[in-house]
Amino acid sequence: MCPGVRVRIPQVHGRYERRLLDTAAGGCEVMICPSVRRFQCLSADCARVTFAEQVGGLTSRHARRAPVVTAVLEAVALVLGGREPACRAG
Hints:
Layout: E1 12-17, E2 20-25, E3 28-32, E4 35-40, E5 50-52, H1 67-80
Antiparallel strand pairs: 1-4, 2-3, 4-5
């Protein structure tokens, strides 16, 4: 379904592989590489020419990290955001 005009789009324009950083497992970086489809919107009312499908709960537009990684980074930033530096240069 086209997010611009909310009509069903049967025209597959192509495919590509996304690369998403996921949480580390056993000290190793984990990459998720789902194959997603690109669609072409043929509606004259739509400003989008092509758009990619999103995998629910895993991908969002322009994201390079899985939602779990983003949540962890946000939690760390909130905890450390208001603290003074541990050491000060004297």
